[in-house]
Design brief:
alpha+beta, 2 domains, about 60% helix
């Protein structure tokens, strides 16, 4: 059902100067909370500035995340946020969105399994006397490992310059080329890991 909604044409949301959001499909004003629920329901939408026509969907989605975090529903670890901020302006910035998206897809592939596991473990917890969260924690660690691997791959220190045959440091261009080769190799390894994790999910 959610896939069918995503395949349909995105609903157009217009944002006016007074910050009000207008849903053109329902001819009604909506709030960020409404848009957040649309995301949860798998309803695709695009937000445009009513005056300039600029696509501001990314900014609005980011605003929704900020609002959710302000409610105390903290989901983004401080270390992740700092690392993400440090990548803005970095030479690998262009590669970050694709790998973060793949990481989230791998995690999303396990969502149904996580929900089913939670139902089974919590319903059996009372009489079993064991730790109902162990299996869930294992899966969480597995998914977090994907994110950690992805972020490590983008670290500017992931590949250090290699010494030349004479024992000195290679010229900057050669060192940069070696760094890029090492980064490509790391990204390929990450891709294989993500594919493997997705198949398991």
């Amino acid at each position: 059902m959610a896939d069918a909604k995503r395949d349909a044409d995105p609903i157009v949301i217009k944002k006016y100067a007074n910050r009000r959001l207008y849903n053109t499909a329902t001819s009604s004003y909506v709030t960020l909370e409404h848009l957040a629920q649309m995301v949860r329901d798998g309803v695709d939408f695009q937000v445009f500035d009513a005056k300039s026509g600029e696509d501001i969907t990314r900014q609005v989605l980011t605003h929704i995340i900020v609002e959710e975090e302000n409610k105390g529903e903290n989901m983004l670890p401080l270390g992740f946020l700092r690392q993400l901020i440090s990548l803005y302006g970095d030479s690998v910035q262009a590669m970050v969105p694709g790998y973060l998206e793949q990481s989230m897809k791998a995690f999303a592939g396990n969502q149904d399994q996580i929900r089913e596991m939670m139902e089974q473990t919590f319903s059996a917890a009372a009489g079993a006397g064991g730790n109902p969260l162990k299996a869930l924690e294992d899966m969480t660690r597995q998914n977090l490992a994907i994110f950690e691997t992805a972020m490590k791959s983008f670290s500017p220190f992931a590949a250090a310059p290699s010494p030349s045959a004479s024992g000195g440091v290679k010229p900057a261009e050669a060192a940069n080329e070696d760094d890029m080769d090492a980064m490509r190799e790391q990204l390929n390894k990450l891709q294989k890991q993500l594919d493997k994790m997705s198949k398991k999910g």
